């Protein structure tokens, strides 16, 4: 449900192979996300990512347009099919490795809601994460002190626009207050693409509480488990993370968000070729084959189909 595989988010770097690892791992479709606020954040001495400056007017719009172009160039060069609707999603397993165009952060909007539809039409965007590493015009983020009380009115308008236009809404990186208001506004299921469960997340943590997870699940949505080795040292531990989430929200509301090539530290799932091993660990943990099918794509496909049509 969330990937930067191929290293397309880094300017002036060569693309890495994507199609072959997807085939080897049995992965039909992945959501590939540009990073809309990339010029305004960096890693600080605390080994965490923080914003360090405000963007110039128009800067993140121009950056994001270029980032979408780079992503589409990766898709063209590696013959990755771009999925735009439910029919194409259903056809993906036979069509070959496919991607859903996504954005991590809606910072390119810069307060202009018409750009939601612009990016849908011009760039093929079908999945929008509202916030990332800077509190933007839409709301607050988990990794900084809240300044806007959760989701802003503009953020609520963006959610409604996504519902109307057929764009999946992703609340990853958003505060619990943001998620609660998004859940009250949306008419479509939500995605929280990459996180993990904690009984009591520490301040500024990217992990979420059981109540935070339930707020997403109650919309019919899906929470993606991600693979930082600092949280899950082994794939067996990650399978346990899936199980803990499923105990809270039910297996119909759990998915996989690899954040491939997006983590600042080691990942326990560093290659799509390892997906069969993760499958084995999930089955060993007690999930049925049907459960694993839901976790590794079926649940997201349901949300995508409901939202995009």
- CATH superfamily name? Metal-dependent hydrolases
Instruction: List low-pLDDT spans.
Output: none
Strand % is 5-15%
Radius of gyration, CA atoms, in whole angstroms: 18 Å
Supply the number of helical segments: 10
Please give the share of residues in helix: 25-40%
**Separation of the first and last Cα atoms:** 17 Å
CATH hierarchy, class: Alpha Beta
**Mean pLDDT level:** 97
N-to-C order of helices and strands: HEEEHEHEHEHEHEHEHEHH
Query: What general outline do the C-alpha atoms trace?
Result: globular
Structure summary, number of beta strands? 10
List the helices and strands and how they pair.
Layout: H1 19-25, E1 29-35, E2 41-43, E3 49-51, H2 59-77, E4 81-82, H3 86-95, E5 98-104, H4 114-123, E6 125-129, H5 153-165, E7 168-170, H6 176-185, E8 191-195, H7 210-217, E9 222-225, H8 235-249, E10 254-256, H9 275-285, H10 289-308
Helix pairs in contact: 6-7, 8-9
